[in-house]
Amino acid sequence: MATRKSNTLKLKFDSARNLSPAPESKSAAKIEPRYDLFINGKFEKPLSKKYFSTINPATEEKLSEVADANAADVNKAVVAARTAYDKVWKKMPAKERAKYIYRIARIMQERAREFAVVETLDGGKPIRESRDFDIPTAANHFFYYAGWADKLEYAFPNRTAKPLGVAGQIIPWNFPLLMAAWKIAPALATGNTVVLKPAETTPLTALKLAEIIQEADLPPGVVNIITGAGATGAALVNHPDINKIAFTGSTAVGKMIQHAIAGTNKKATLELGGKAANIIFDDAPLDQAVEGVINGIFFNQGHVCCAGSRLYVQESVFKEVIRKLKDRMETLIVGDPLDKNTDIGAINSRQQLDIINNYLKIGKQEGAEMYQSSCNLPRKGFFCKPTIFTNVAQSNRIAQEEIFGPVLAIQSFRTDDEVIEKANNTPFGLSAGIWTDKGSKIFNLSSKMRAGVVWANSFNKFDPSSPFGGYKESGYGREGGLHGLSGYVNLV
Ligand code: NAP
Ligand code: MG
After folding, report:
1. What whole-number distance in Å separates Cα of residue 304 and Cα of residue 273?
2. Which is catalytic among the residues 24, 44, 271, 473?
3. If you take atom 9 of ligand 1, which residue's CA is the nearest one?
4. Ligand nearest to the CA of 54
5. Distance of alpha carbon 145 from alpha carbon 136, whole angstroms
6. Active-site residue identified among 305, 306, 375, 384
7. Which domains does the chain have, with CATH numbers?
8. Is 211 a catalytic residue?
9. Ligand whose nearest atom lies closest to the CA of 198
10. Nearest-atom index, ligand 1, CA of 197
11. What is the position in ligand 1's atom list of the atom closest to the CA of 252?
């Protein structure tokens, strides 16, 4: 029986892995050999005179080079944003502002295929994700906030919402265009102007968004996009004429930003790291739960702040869940991100791959048992096999620290109270998932979990109308939905 089962399984794996390649054509991606800084509606050469390369992490090939903005460049962008704010944007009737935001959304939809290919080339995520999730969700954020621009009196009844001024926005590499949309759309809808800095490893879709902004004829200076490394971000944070910092990234840099703006009038929203718990009860639909767990941690190579990187399984179904999980992991296809069959693409950078591999070592040293799928990895590029750890203790680093890779730490539990305590026992509190047949359990747990989002019988679901943000070291402030407007207004 065991042999027959494993033979059937083997056949299934082989057929999944032996699918003929179905690569998306690169011809849709128009990438210039060099990009300057987008300031005051034009691409301007950097005062720093410096450029750096951005590569395709799946092949290690150079895609383009982008400007490295220094403090003088940052100043130029902030001056452009301030001038546009004072002279044009804050005076413009809200319904006129809305038209520009709608236009950005529509052009993004028209160019969706091109953007998906560029996102996948620059960041390494599977084309299925950039095509079906990142780009459409980014466009939806612009549509959603365009709708609010002339309805702020309904968003804030009996109050007047005034814009803050110039927003400095700094974003990470895991959802490059989507994070830009999360930041820019609500800022524009509420009448602010923007200087945005994308991450060093994934600047291209933000620069292509600058092309859309030109095409949409947005008044010059309302959105400025400047590339650079951490120092460029720090210069933006420290610029005296910034009214608001919106940051998504690591908890370490979030803390540095808090220190830097202490004692100033700058407002901030910080979206930081996470260590989400997925909880499977014995009454859950197990196949569905396993699929959700797979999606929760292996989606986007685990480069997701709200990734379900911890799994708690009720003791009576523990063995069964682990078996199903391993079976499903075997069918996952790791490889060329441009291939439409690929489930797990490339790790975003060599540096991130080193961090993940170091955690695999730490996990083993801590005494946890590691299991990886038997797939082969491409020889070039940065790749990691989907990995699970069992025999994990709550105090282990792999159960406490954010790994930001396709690595899942699994523990068992017996009672509701025990799992609530364990799930809440990390410095983070961004998201969580509960899998059960009982509505009462969902209500009980979701009210006791210290996490900004709790998904029930689903995971990693997003909608522009729903707020997102953390507890504890996962940051403060909310993005998305009505709540996302609050971070960009003074209410009088
Ligand atoms: P990171 O190092 O904090 O970088 C985020 C952004 O900040 C990048 O643009 C980065 O530039 C810039 N930066 C670096 N040092 C800076 C400084 N001293 N001052 C100002 N800006 C600075 O984070 P990451 O490693 O790129 O991204 C992964 C992290 O983001 C994870 O911890 C993840 O949980 C978190 N994240 C959170 C959310 C959320 O919504 N809560 C969403 C996505 C990601 P460079 O790229 O040039 O370093
Ligand atoms: Mg890149």
Report:
1. 9
2. 271
3. 199
4. 2
5. 14
6. 305
7. 26-272+474-491 (3.40.605.10), 277-463 (3.40.309.10)
8. no
9. 1
10. 9
11. 3
250 lines ligand 1 (CB under 6 A): yes
Burial 83-93 (b: 16+ CB within 10 A, else e): bbbeeebeebe
> What gap in Å lies between CA 266 and CA 260, rounded to an integer?
10
For the chain, 492 residues long, give each residue's pLDDT as a single digit of tens: 444 444 555 555 555 667 788 888 888 899 999 999 999 999 999 999 999 999 999 999 999 999 999 999 999 999 999 999 999 999 999 999 999 999 999 999 999 999 999 999 999 999 999 999 999 999 999 999 999 999 999 999 999 999 999 999 999 999 999 999 999 999 999 999 999 999 999 999 999 999 999 999 999 999 999 999 999 999 999 999 999 999 999 999 999 999 999 999 999 999 999 999 999 999 999 999 999 999 999 999 999 999 999 999 999 999 999 999 999 999 999 999 999 999 999 999 999 999 999 999 999 999 999 999 999 999 999 999 999 999 999 999 999 999 999 999 999 999 999 999 999 999 999 999 999 999 999 999 999 999 999 999 999 999 999 999 999 999 999 999 999 999 999 999
Cα of 249 vs centre of ligand 1, distance in Å, is 3
Contact 88, 219 (CB under 8 A): yes
Q: In whole angstroms, what is the distance from residue 154 CA to residue 147 CA?
A: 12
Using a 10 angstrom Cβ sphere, with 0-12 exposed, 13-18 middle and 19 or more buried, the burial of residue 32 is middle
Least Cα distance to 223 among 254, 183, 269, 172 occurs for: 183
Q: What are the two backbone dihedrals, phi and then psi, of residue 55, each rounded to the nearest 5 degrees? A: -115, 165
The Å distance, Cα 174 to ligand 1 centre, comes to: 9
Name the closest-CA residue to atom 47, ligand 1. Answer: 229
- Any atom of ligand 1 within 6 Å of the Cβ of 480: no
| φ/ψ of residue 91, rounded to 5 | -90, -15
Protein residue with its CA nearest to atom 22 in ligand 1: 230
Instruction: Quote the ligand 2 centre to 32 CA distance (angstroms).
Output: 14
Residue 271 falls in the annotated catalytic set:
yes
E strand intervals along 171-214? 193-197
